[in-house]
Amino acid sequence: MLFSLLKDIGFIENIVYGKFVGVYFNADKIDDSIEELEVPKDYKEFLFFSVASLITGGDIEFKGINTSYLANSLKILSNFGISYDVFEEERIRLWFSDWPKEPFSNIKDVGASTSVVRLFMLPVLPKLPEEHLPKSINISLKERKKLIQDLNSLGCGLEIPQEDTILVKRPGNFRRNNLYLLNNHEEGNYTRFLGSLLPQEGSTLYNVNALLNYNSSLLEKLSNLGLNFENAS
Protein backbone atom coordinates (compact mmCIF):
# COMPACT_ATOMS: atom_id res chain seq x y z
CA MET A 1 0.00 0.00 0.00
CA LEU A 2 2.80 2.42 0.83
CA PHE A 3 4.59 1.87 -2.49
CA SER A 4 1.30 2.19 -4.37
CA LEU A 5 0.61 5.49 -2.61
CA LEU A 6 4.06 6.84 -3.45
CA LYS A 7 3.63 5.79 -7.08
CA ASP A 8 0.26 7.55 -7.25
CA ILE A 9 1.78 10.84 -6.10
CA GLY A 10 4.78 10.53 -8.41
CA PHE A 11 7.58 9.56 -6.07
CA ILE A 12 8.02 6.07 -7.54
CA GLU A 13 7.96 5.55 -11.30
CA ASN A 14 7.78 1.77 -11.26
CA ILE A 15 7.42 -0.93 -8.61
CA VAL A 16 9.22 -4.27 -8.67
CA TYR A 17 8.30 -6.17 -5.54
CA GLY A 18 10.95 -8.22 -3.80
CA LYS A 19 13.85 -6.16 -5.14
CA PHE A 20 14.87 -2.70 -3.97
CA VAL A 21 13.97 0.96 -4.14
CA GLY A 22 16.29 3.92 -4.69
CA VAL A 23 16.12 6.81 -2.25
CA TYR A 24 17.11 10.22 -3.64
CA PHE A 25 17.38 13.61 -2.00
CA ASN A 26 17.11 16.69 -4.20
CA ALA A 27 17.48 20.02 -2.41
CA ASP A 28 15.88 21.81 -5.36
CA LYS A 29 12.62 19.96 -4.78
CA ILE A 30 12.21 20.69 -1.08
CA ASP A 31 8.67 21.69 -0.24
CA ASP A 32 9.14 24.82 1.87
CA SER A 33 5.40 25.04 2.46
CA ILE A 34 5.45 22.11 4.89
CA GLU A 35 4.93 23.64 8.30
CA GLU A 36 3.93 20.67 10.38
CA LEU A 37 4.37 16.92 10.44
CA GLU A 38 2.44 14.29 12.35
CA VAL A 39 4.46 11.48 13.88
CA PRO A 40 3.42 8.65 16.19
CA LYS A 41 3.96 9.02 19.93
CA ASP A 42 7.45 7.56 19.69
CA TYR A 43 10.48 9.60 20.67
CA LYS A 44 12.75 7.61 18.36
CA GLU A 45 10.65 8.70 15.40
CA PHE A 46 10.59 12.25 16.71
CA LEU A 47 14.37 12.40 16.72
CA PHE A 48 14.65 10.87 13.27
CA PHE A 49 12.18 13.25 11.68
CA SER A 50 13.51 16.27 13.53
CA VAL A 51 16.92 15.61 11.99
CA ALA A 52 15.34 14.97 8.59
CA SER A 53 13.42 18.24 8.78
CA LEU A 54 16.59 20.15 9.60
CA ILE A 55 18.34 18.57 6.63
CA THR A 56 15.51 19.79 4.40
CA GLY A 57 15.49 23.35 5.67
CA GLY A 58 14.49 23.28 9.31
CA ASP A 59 11.76 25.10 11.23
CA ILE A 60 9.00 22.53 11.42
CA GLU A 61 6.23 21.73 13.86
CA PHE A 62 5.49 18.21 15.08
CA LYS A 63 2.04 17.09 16.16
CA GLY A 64 0.99 13.90 17.88
CA ILE A 65 4.22 13.42 19.82
CA ASN A 66 4.35 12.76 23.57
CA THR A 67 6.68 15.55 24.67
CA SER A 68 7.08 14.11 28.16
CA TYR A 69 9.50 11.54 26.70
CA LEU A 70 11.67 14.02 24.80
CA ALA A 71 13.93 15.47 27.51
CA ASN A 72 17.10 13.59 26.52
CA SER A 73 16.54 14.04 22.80
CA LEU A 74 15.92 17.77 23.16
CA LYS A 75 19.01 18.18 25.31
CA ILE A 76 21.20 16.54 22.68
CA LEU A 77 19.59 18.47 19.82
CA SER A 78 20.03 21.76 21.67
CA ASN A 79 23.75 21.04 21.99
CA PHE A 80 23.89 21.19 18.21
CA GLY A 81 22.21 24.56 17.84
CA ILE A 82 18.61 23.41 17.54
CA SER A 83 16.00 25.50 19.36
CA TYR A 84 12.50 24.40 20.24
CA ASP A 85 9.17 25.50 21.70
CA VAL A 86 6.77 23.10 23.39
CA PHE A 87 3.30 24.56 22.93
CA GLU A 88 1.24 21.84 24.55
CA GLU A 89 1.45 18.20 25.50
CA GLU A 90 1.60 16.79 21.96
CA ARG A 91 2.92 19.68 19.86
CA ILE A 92 6.47 20.97 19.49
CA ARG A 93 8.29 23.28 17.07
CA LEU A 94 11.97 22.89 16.10
CA TRP A 95 14.31 25.17 14.19
CA PHE A 96 18.03 25.55 13.58
CA SER A 97 19.24 28.63 15.44
CA ASP A 98 23.02 28.84 15.75
CA TRP A 99 26.15 26.82 16.37
CA PRO A 100 26.61 25.97 20.05
CA LYS A 101 29.33 27.87 21.91
CA GLU A 102 30.51 24.68 23.61
CA PRO A 103 30.23 21.64 21.31
CA PHE A 104 29.27 18.28 22.75
CA SER A 105 32.67 16.70 23.39
CA ASN A 106 31.72 13.15 24.35
CA ILE A 107 28.68 10.91 24.01
CA LYS A 108 28.11 7.64 25.83
CA ASP A 109 26.12 4.63 24.66
CA VAL A 110 23.78 3.69 27.49
CA GLY A 111 22.71 0.50 25.80
CA ALA A 112 19.16 1.16 24.61
CA SER A 113 18.48 0.95 20.90
CA THR A 114 16.89 4.42 20.86
CA SER A 115 20.07 5.85 22.35
CA VAL A 116 22.15 4.20 19.63
CA VAL A 117 19.94 5.77 16.97
CA ARG A 118 20.46 9.13 18.62
CA LEU A 119 24.24 8.69 18.88
CA PHE A 120 24.83 7.77 15.27
CA MET A 121 22.60 10.42 13.77
CA LEU A 122 24.86 13.17 15.03
CA PRO A 123 28.06 12.45 13.05
CA VAL A 124 26.22 12.49 9.71
CA LEU A 125 24.52 15.85 10.14
CA PRO A 126 25.55 17.79 7.02
CA LYS A 127 25.33 21.25 8.59
CA LEU A 128 27.81 20.65 11.39
CA PRO A 129 31.33 21.97 10.80
CA GLU A 130 34.10 19.76 12.11
CA GLU A 131 34.74 21.88 15.19
CA HIS A 132 31.17 21.26 16.35
CA LEU A 133 31.10 17.51 15.89
CA PRO A 134 31.21 15.35 19.01
CA LYS A 135 34.83 14.53 19.69
CA SER A 136 34.21 10.92 20.65
CA ILE A 137 31.46 8.37 21.12
CA ASN A 138 31.78 5.60 23.69
CA ILE A 139 30.01 2.46 22.50
CA SER A 140 30.34 -1.30 22.42
CA LEU A 141 32.46 -1.94 19.35
CA LYS A 142 31.57 -5.62 19.18
CA GLU A 143 27.84 -4.95 19.08
CA ARG A 144 28.04 -1.99 16.67
CA LYS A 145 30.83 -3.15 14.37
CA LYS A 146 28.70 -3.38 11.20
CA LEU A 147 27.11 0.00 11.81
CA ILE A 148 30.53 1.60 12.29
CA GLN A 149 31.76 0.05 9.04
CA ASP A 150 28.74 1.32 7.14
CA LEU A 151 29.08 4.84 8.50
CA ASN A 152 32.74 4.87 7.52
CA SER A 153 31.84 3.69 4.03
CA LEU A 154 29.48 6.66 3.82
CA GLY A 155 32.42 8.93 4.63
CA CYS A 156 31.46 9.88 8.16
CA GLY A 157 35.04 9.85 9.37
CA LEU A 158 34.88 7.56 12.39
CA GLU A 159 38.12 6.23 13.84
CA ILE A 160 38.72 3.74 16.65
CA PRO A 161 41.73 4.80 18.76
CA GLN A 162 41.07 2.39 21.63
CA GLU A 163 38.56 -0.16 22.84
CA ASP A 164 35.01 1.13 23.18
CA THR A 165 35.82 4.62 21.89
CA ILE A 166 35.19 6.16 18.48
CA LEU A 167 36.56 9.50 17.33
CA VAL A 168 34.38 11.56 14.99
CA LYS A 169 36.71 13.21 12.49
CA ARG A 170 34.37 14.82 10.00
CA PRO A 171 30.80 14.75 8.69
CA GLY A 172 29.99 12.46 5.80
CA ASN A 173 31.46 13.04 2.37
CA PHE A 174 29.91 9.85 1.01
CA ARG A 175 32.41 7.78 -0.86
CA ARG A 176 29.77 5.14 -1.57
CA ASN A 177 26.18 5.54 -2.66
CA ASN A 178 25.02 1.92 -2.39
CA LEU A 179 24.08 0.55 1.00
CA TYR A 180 22.60 -2.79 2.02
CA LEU A 181 20.14 -2.88 4.87
CA LEU A 182 20.13 -5.83 7.25
CA ASN A 183 17.36 -7.94 8.69
CA ASN A 184 16.85 -7.66 12.45
CA HIS A 185 19.01 -4.54 12.77
CA GLU A 186 16.38 -1.92 13.49
CA GLU A 187 18.44 0.88 14.99
CA GLY A 188 21.32 0.42 12.55
CA ASN A 189 19.04 0.49 9.52
CA TYR A 190 17.39 3.65 10.81
CA THR A 191 20.74 5.40 10.85
CA ARG A 192 21.92 3.96 7.53
CA PHE A 193 18.70 5.22 5.98
CA LEU A 194 19.28 8.73 7.29
CA GLY A 195 22.83 8.70 5.98
CA SER A 196 21.64 7.60 2.55
CA LEU A 197 19.47 10.71 2.25
CA LEU A 198 22.31 13.18 2.54
CA PRO A 199 24.26 12.93 -0.77
CA GLN A 200 22.88 15.39 -3.29
CA GLU A 201 23.22 12.88 -6.13
CA GLY A 202 21.17 10.29 -4.28
CA SER A 203 21.81 6.82 -2.95
CA THR A 204 20.48 3.34 -3.61
CA LEU A 205 19.31 1.28 -0.65
CA TYR A 206 19.13 -2.49 -1.09
CA ASN A 207 16.93 -4.81 0.98
CA VAL A 208 14.80 -1.81 1.87
CA ASN A 209 11.98 -4.05 3.11
CA ALA A 210 14.06 -4.73 6.20
CA LEU A 211 13.51 -1.10 7.12
CA LEU A 212 9.95 -0.68 5.89
CA ASN A 213 8.80 -3.75 7.78
CA TYR A 214 10.01 -1.99 10.91
CA ASN A 215 8.37 1.31 10.03
CA SER A 216 6.18 1.25 6.96
CA SER A 217 5.37 4.98 7.08
CA LEU A 218 8.95 6.25 6.72
CA LEU A 219 8.87 7.02 3.00
CA GLU A 220 5.48 8.67 3.11
CA LYS A 221 6.52 11.01 5.90
CA LEU A 222 9.85 11.87 4.32
CA SER A 223 8.15 12.56 1.00
CA ASN A 224 6.13 15.20 2.85
CA LEU A 225 9.44 16.90 3.64
CA GLY A 226 10.38 17.07 -0.04
CA LEU A 227 12.46 13.91 -0.43
CA ASN A 228 12.27 12.22 -3.83
CA PHE A 229 12.02 8.44 -4.25
CA GLU A 230 12.48 6.39 -7.41
CA ASN A 231 12.52 2.72 -8.22
CA ALA A 232 16.15 1.79 -8.88
CA SER A 233 15.74 -1.33 -11.02
Please describe the structure with a list of short key phrases separated by commas or semicolons.
4-stranded mixed beta sheet; single chain; about 30% helix; about 230 residues; 8 helices
Explain this structure:
This protein is an alpha/beta fold. It has one domain: Enolpyruvate transferase domain (UDP-n-acetylglucosamine1-carboxyvinyl-transferase, Chain). The protein is 30% helix and 21% strand. Strands 10-11-1-12 form a 4-stranded mixed sheet, with helices on one face. Strands 2-3-5-4 form a 4-stranded mixed sheet. Helix 2 runs parallel beside helix 4 and helix 4 packs parallel to helix 6. The longest helix has 13 residues. The N terminus is likely disordered.
Category by helix and strand content: alpha/beta
The number of distinct helices, counting runs of at least 4 residues, comes to 8
Total individual domains: 1
CATH homologous superfamily placement? Enolpyruvate transferase domain
Order of helical and strand elements: HEEHEHEEEHEHEEEHEHHE
Q: Strand order of the main beta sheet, please?
A: 10-11-1-12
According to DSSP, the number of beta strands is 12
CATH class: Alpha Beta
Poorly predicted sequence stretches spanning 5 or more consecutive residues: 1-32
- CATH topology-level name: UDP-n-acetylglucosamine1-carboxyvinyl-transferase, Chain
- Termini separation (Å)? 19 Å
Question: Kindly state the mean pLDDT as a whole number?
Answer: 65
Helix content: 25-40%
Sheet bearing the most strands, described? 4 strands, mixed
| Shape, principal axes of CA atoms | globular
